[in-house]
Amino acid sequence: MVTAVIMAGGKGTRMRSDMEKPMVQIKGKPMIQHVYEAVNAAYEVNNLFTATSKYTPLTTDFIRNSGLKVIETPGEGYVNDLGFLIHQLSKITFEGSNNDDILMTISADLPLITGEIIDEVIMEYKECGKPAMCVAVPVEYFREFDLKPHMVMGDIVPSGLNILRRNNNQQDEEVLELRKFELALNINSPEDLISLEKYLNFKAFKQAIK
Fold it and tell me: Which of 149, 134, 133 is nearest to 184 (CA)?
């Protein structure tokens, strides 16, 4: 069983805006809506939660009004909030679930993500034989598209999509490298929004001339 959690509790200071980052409008709807629609479309996901915090109250209200489940975290960074999430999820019983179930976390700033990509990642995880997986994009891919990576680890950039087991034990990790624009473009700054707009305009142009 796979439980997905959209991480939407960060301060989003790099956006240099008073607007909560998950609520930034993209193609007429909040960025987080693009993400949860993609997760909902993934066949491999059985349960969906959104993790918010005191820094994202509008996001919390929006998600609840959308009929989705929310876990409010302390907002103390990804690692601390993940530990809090795992503890909270251990108190929730799903039919046919246990604490060794699969937990997928995905950042709320991946508006281009699709259900197909999420299913591909989960299937790769199930076949890799390791209890944890970090999905990353090669640095060279960013150079090809003139994108600025938000965090570089050697020759890869973490995408914001991770998988682990809910048992919270120390876990050996597989790194899955995917050359996908949908995973490369995290919206962390105004410059990222410009890159997104260029991509969407180019995609619309290509569709128009078919």
Answer: 149
